[in-house]
Write a structure and sequence with these properties.
Hypothetical Protein Aq_1857, Chain: A, 4-stranded mixed β-sheet, single chain, mainly beta, 6-stranded mixed β-sheet
């Protein structure tokens, strides 16, 4: 993880998924949320938000898509103090998640998960819209 202008940037990997994915989003979510978040991912993100000294009732995790990477698009994650006006704002297992309107088309139906292991730990997006991903798993194409 690194800092960019006082905002913590979180490394994220891409997991292309060609089958429909479902996850129990937990209390406070609605059908049609742009993304779902696993309980493990929510717990990890909430711990990081608290470590930053942010209020988990206001601050949240922003998931966005940006141009870049060898496959054309890549995911970004960062903590924001509050959502922007055009954001879809959902709550999963106590974690507020912000997705901007431009990114919603790319991440609709995705699941944000956290995976740990000997090869490294981090957040991963399982995206049913991804047609392919690059070899390193950092970018995708729809």
């Amino acid at each position: 993880m690194s800092r960019d202008n006082g905002v913590r940037i979180i490394a994220v990997g891409v997991v292309a998924s060609f089958m429909s994915q479902t996850a129990d989003a937990g209390e406070g979510t609605e059908t049609g949320d742009p993304v779902q978040v696993t309980e493990e991912a929510a717990e990890q993100a909430l711990d990081l938000i608290r470590d930053e000294g942010l209020d988990t009732g206001e601050a949240g995790l922003r998931l966005f898509v940006k141009q870049g990477g060898c496959a054309g698009l890549s995911y970004g994650l960062r903590f924001d103090l509050e959502p922007e006006a055009e954001d879809a704002v959902t709550t999963h297992h106590g974690l507020r998640v912000f997705v901007d309107s431009a990114s919603q088309n790319y991440v609709e139906g995705s699941v944000l998960d956290f995976e740990g292991g000997l090869q490294g730990a981090g957040f991963h997006v399982e995206n049913p819209n991804a047609e392919s991903e690059c070899g390193c798993g950092e970018s995708f194409r729809t």
